[in-house]
Amino acid sequence: MYYGGGWGLWGMLAMTVSTVLFWALVVIAIVALVRYLQRTTRTEPRASRAEEVLAERFARGEIDEEEYRRRLETLAEHRRRA
User: Fold this and answer.
1) How many folded domains does the chain comprise?
2) Nearby residues of 14 by Cβ (< 8 Å), 6 or more positions away
3) Is the overall model pTM greater than 0.85, yes or no?
4) Residue 32 falls inside a structural domain
5) What one-character-per-residue DSSP string does the chain give?
6) pLDDT of 38-72, one tens digit each?
7) In a domain, 22, yes or no
8) How many CB atoms lie within 10 A of CB 79?
9) From CA 79, how far away is CA 32, in angstroms rounded?
10) Which of 37, 54, 60, 82 has its CA 20 to 30 A from that of 31?
């Protein structure tokens, strides 16, 4: 049998470790992408929903125009900071 010229045990170990690291990086990248997409899509509807609730309260007469505009400005300012 011919055993010379091969990678041997250390070569197989290096290939195994590098393969495991590669797939771990792929999984981490996918998880990071999913979390990023969830975070960006989650924040936008909240701001618009808050404005909708504010507009509904104004339409029902629960708040006057001055309070409506003040709160709308507060929401816009908060959105700019985030």
Assistant:
1) 1
2) 7
3) no
4) yes
5) ---TTS-HHHHHHHHHHHHHHHHHHHHHHHHHHHHHHHHHHHHHHHHHHHHHHHHHHHHHTSS-HHHHHHHHHHHHHHHHH-
6) 887 655 555 578 888 999 999 999 999 999 999 99
7) no
8) 15
9) 24
10) 82
